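Run log, item B.
One chain of 242 residues. Sequence copied directly from the ordering sheet:
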Amino acid sequence: MRHFFALISILFIIETSNAQLFRKEKVTYDANQGRGTTDYNLLRWGYFLGINNYDFNFDYNEDLRDIYVKRSPGFSVGLIGNLRINNFMDLRLEPGLLITTRELYYSQSNFEEPTVTETDLTREVKSTYIHVPLLLKISTKRVNNFKPFIVGGVSTALNLSSNETNPNDNANGQFRTTKNNLFYELGFGIDFYLYNFKFTPSIRGLFGINDELVRDENPDSPWTSNINSMQSRGVFVNFTFQ
C-alpha cells in the first residue's frame, strides 16, 4: 500500500509540473523569490524516496540444484548531500534506510534425510539496511530543463536484521547473514528542473563485494555447506527532490 501511495504522489508531481518541464523557458534561480535551480551552490541538500528489489547471487561448491530466490519489492528513504566539483561532476553522499525481504527455496536433493518438511526447504531473509553510498555523478550539458547523468561509486551497509551473532543457526530455523557489507553501484537518471525544486528519477544497480553468508556450525549443513559465497545484488528506483 505504501508503494501505491508513493507512486500516486510521484505521478501527481509529474502531472502538475508537466507544463514547466516542456516550456522553452529555462528555469534559473531567482534569489528574490528563493526558488529555481541551485546547481551552482557548492553544497546542496535533498531527500529521496524509492523502491528496491534485492536478490542473492550464489557461487556453489558442487553442481547441485540452485537455490531459488523469491524477491519482494522493498522501500527506500534517505537524505542527500551534494558537493559540486564543476559543471558536469558532483560528489554525493546518500545515507538512507532500506527495507527488503527475500525468501530462499531449497530443493529436496540438498537433504539426505528422508523426512524433510516444507519448513526445512524455506528460509525467509529479512533485511533492514542503514545504507551509505559515496557516489560520483557525471552529467551531460543541460538541455533546456533536462540534464541526463550517470552515477557510480561504492557503498557500505549495516544490516540490522542480520542475526550474525545469534547462536542458533539453520538447525533451529535461523538463516544468518553478516552485519557489515560492501557494494559497488552503477546507474543513470535525468534531472528535471522545476520552478520550486529539482526532481530526479533514477535507476541504479547494486552489486555485493563481500561474502554475506554466516555458515552453520555443522560443516555438512544442507543449508550452507554447498555455498561458496553469497552476495546481494539489487535494483533501486529512486525519486529525488532537491
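Observations after the first pass:
- The chain has a mean pLDDT of 86.
- The beta strands are 43-60, 68-84, 89-93, 96-105, 122-139, 146-159, 180-193, 198-208, 227-241.
Flagged for discussion on Thursday.
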